[in-house]
Structure formats: structure tokens, C-alpha cells
Design a protein that fits this description.
Largest sheet: 4 strands, parallel
Number of helices: 16
Number of strands: 8
Shape: globular
Bound molecules: iron/sulfur cluster
Structural class: alpha/beta
Radius of gyration: 20 Å
CATH class of the domain at 21-175: Alpha Beta
Strand content: 5-15%
Order of helices and strands: HHHEHEHEHEHHHHEHEHHHEHEH
Length: about 400
């Protein structure tokens, strides 16, 4: 525990909320999902791989969406490795390991969004390994015309709704779907409040804490998660932490396989205030509300939010805007002094995007550095030295050179 963490924990009424959040994050065998199913007999739990799936669509038919972020640094890979070549990322191996050892048995189905070839291949393996479970690839649109990509997405969601209803989910009901959208919007507003507080006073909400609080929502209904986030924000506002003279940085590239918590804490200990990141991007993917009035078609509203308000990320086609412009804009908005690219090793989307993003940062004269990790990385000394050198250089000279 760092000096700063120790101080925060001693005087911190938010500790209890963080402990609860940590429990959800560490719940790799999905005991909370089992409990939810006992409390809601007959309802389905539907897992999904990162980054984004339309969670309110699932809640609108009574399902519990469950984010699947692999095994982190908690799972020994015994069988999972035998399904993959050595030069790909780690998350599919640990996900398969968890599935094969029964940890994911409470899931009635899994959605595989179209973010990369690895996830596409995993969806095929899943169908072969678990033929009795529902599995569906979700081809998210890369055409942002409402008449093309929008209609395609609405039709694809309708297909998934039909499939899940056939397996026991509620029949589609527009009012229930609108209620689910409203709950998602409220959760999103709470997360925005958390992010705003972190940008304004990063010493009050550490990135590693915001990460736990956000990630806990991966297996909670939106309304339950909103309550937890708001509890934490209220408690964090009451803190009296010491203010450190850290460098304000953005972290990009960790949108799918997540870095170990120890890595995030290492960056903090190296003098970085992470004021913005793309960890847990799925819960923040839509910027602002999904706009859906009382007489609007909720499925079209979800599709339009994806088309119009989806965040720029490596798995989303950027048509008109210059590549990297969104990142430079984010740096300016949160008044960051530099960017740390932290991508999972062998993550094609993140690592193919990175040179273009670095070029955009160079043009804007924004310092940056990069590192790679695996979800089970256990040694952080080299990362600490690299991040420390970066933060010192930015602090002293305003650049990483
Ligand atoms: S870490 Fe990257 S390559 Fe691996 S599954 Fe996720 S997006 Fe795909």
C-alpha cells in the first residue's frame, strides 16, 4: 500500500464502498450472478465480452448483463492455452479456462461483440464447446447512416431479442425497454459524476478506486450499480486527502483485456494522476444519454445512441474525423499533460491504432509513452521506472524527450 493509499484508507468513509466493489470485481465464479438468479427465478444471465453490447436491451427483457473480463491475475491457465497459439492476448485463454472449469455455468448465454478476430474466433469455439448455451456474435455496425447501419443494428438486436425470448427471457415490451434505458442513463450520469470529480480533484478519487467502482457494475443491474457509484462519490467528496504534485495523464489502449489493478496503482505511485482512461469503456461507451422519449421506439433509440454518441475507439470505424483528433480533444478537455498508451500484449486493435494516435499527439506536441501488459502481469518495477521517468520529464521539462 502506498503512503497516499494508506492515508486515504485511514480517514476514508469510502473504504466500505470500495471493499464491496472489490468483492464484485473479484467474483470470478459469479456467486453474485447465482444469487441474482435465485432472487429472480426464471430470468436469464447473459455474459458478454468487452467492449460494448447494448446492456439496456438485455435488462429490458429481464436479463442480467454480465461483463466478462477474463481471469485477471487470479486464474492459472491449464486448459485455456491449448486452444490458442502463443502470440495472441491473454483474455480469451482465461475466459475459456473459467468456462471449462465451471465458473461461468450460471450464464445462460454469451454475446461476442465484433471487436477483433480473437473474439470472433472465441465465439465459434464457444458454440462448439457449449452447444446447449446461447451464443451469438454481435456485428456492431461500422456504417453510421441511420438508414443503413442504424436499420442493420435494430434488426440484429431484434434477432437477439427473439433468440433470448425463445429461451425464457421476457417478451419485448416497449415500456419495459424504455424503463431499462432510463436506468442506464441514470447509471451513466452517476459514472459521469465520478469521472468529473476525478478530473477536478484526482487526489480525491484515485483512478484505481474509480476503476473498481466502475467495474463492479459489470455484473450488477444498472439501478443497483448507480446506487453504489453515487454512494462512493458522496463519500469521496467528504475526504480530506493530501494533495500531491503529480502529473495529469490519460491512459489509452486498455479497453478490452484489463490491466491488473497493481499496474494502475503502480502508475499512480510513479507520480501519475490518471484523470481519464478507457478501462471499462463499455459502461461509458455512449457519451451522455440514450435519448428516448415516451413515444419513441426504444430499439431505434439504442441504435441511434451507438451511431451518434459512441466513443472513438480502435474497434470503431472513424469515417470523417481525423484519426487521433478525439484523443487530442480529450487531453485538452481534462487538462492532461501527457498520455500513457497501455495496451494488452498482442492486442491488434489497440496496437494498430497506436501509431496513428501517437502521430496526432506529436502534431499537438503532447508528450506520450507506451507500455504493454497482460492481465496476469505480476512484476511492475520496470513499469514503475518507465512511468516515473515519464512523469518526472513532463513535470520538469513539459515533454518526455
Ligand atoms: S485484448 Fe485486443 S486482441 Fe485481445 S480480445 Fe481484446 S480487443 Fe481482441
Amino acid at each position: 500500500m502506498t503512503e497516499q493509499e494508506a492515508e486515504n484508507t485511514t480517514n476514508d468513509p469510502a473504504s466500505a464502498v470500495l471493499a464491496r466493489a472489490r468483492h464484485f470485481v473479484d467474483d470470478l465464479t459469479l456467486t453474485e450472478v447465482v444469487r441474482w438468479k435465485q432472487d429472480h427465478p426464471g430470468r436469464l444471465a447473459v455474459g458478454y465480452m468487452p467492449i460494448y453490447v447494448p446492456r439496456p436491451m438485455l435488462e429490458g427483457i429481464g436479463c442480467l448483463p454480465v461483463a466478462m473480463f477474463g481471469g485477471g491475475d487470479q486464474v492459472d491457465i491449464i486448459k485455456g492455452d491449448s486452444f490458442y497459439q502463443s502470440y495472441i492476448c491473454h483474455i480469451p485463454r482465461s475466459t475459456l479456462e473459467l468456462a471449462l472449469n465451471g465458473s461461468l455455468d450460471s450464464l445462460d448465454g454469451v454475446l461476442f461483440p465484433s471487436i477483433c478476430d480473437v473474439i470472433r474466433n472465441l465465439s465459434g469455439m464457444w458454440q462448439m464447446l457449449f452447444p446447449e448455451k446461447y451464443a451469438s456474435y454481435v456485428d456492431l455496425p461500422q456504417n453510421f447512416d441511420p438508414e443503413l447501419g442504424g436499420k442493420f443494428y435494430v434488426n440484429d438486436m431484434a434477432r437477439i431479442l427473439r433468440d433470448l425470448t425463445a429461451r425464457g427471457a421476457w417478451q419485448y415490451d416497449a415500456d419495459k425497454m424504455r424503463a431499462a434505458i432510463k436506468a442506464e442513463n441514470s447509471r451513466r450520469a452517476a459514472l459521469q459524476e465520478l469521472d468529473t470529480l476525478r478530473v477536478k480533484e484526482p487526489f480525491r478519487v484515485r483512478a484505481s478506486e474509480a476503476y473498481l467502482v466502475a467495474r463492479a457494475g459489470g455484473l450488477l443491474e444498472a439501478a443497483v450499480h448507480e446506487k453504489l457509484v453515487r454512494e462512493f462519490v458522496a463519500a469521496a467528496r467528504e475526504r480530506a486527502p493530501r494533495v500531491y504534485d503529480n502529473v495529469r495523464v490519460l491512459v489509452r489502449g486498455s479497453f478490452c483485456e484489463q490491466p491488473p489493478l497493481g499496474l494502475i496503482k503502480t502508475l499512480e505511485a510513479a507520480g501519475c494522476d490518471i484523470v481519464d482512461d478507457d478501462f471499462q469503456l463499455g459502461l461509458r461507451y455512449i457519451e451522455g444519454d440514450i435519448e428516448c422519449g415516451p413515444s419513441d421506439d426504444p430499439m431505434r433509440a439504442i441504435a441511434m445512441a451507438f451511431l451518434r454518441r459512441g466513443q472513438a475507439t480502435a474497434s470503431r470505424y472513424i469515417a470523417d474525423e481525423e484519426k487521433g483528433a478525439a484523443l487530442v480533444k480529450s487531453v485538452r478537455e481534462v487538462e492532461a499533460e501527457g498520455v500513457i498508451f497501455a495496451a494488452a500484449s498482442f492486442c491488434d486493435p489497440a496496437l494498430l491504432d497506436q501509431p496513428m494516435l501517437e502521430t496526432a499527439l506529436d502534431r499537438a506536441k503532447i508528450p506520450h509513452t507506451s507500455l504493454k501488459f497482460a492481465e496476469n502481469t505480476g512484476q511492475f518495477q520496470v513499469i514503475r521506472e518507465q512511468a516515473g521517468a515519464f512523469s518526472d520529464a513532463v513535470k520538469l521539462w513539459g515533454s518526455a524527450a
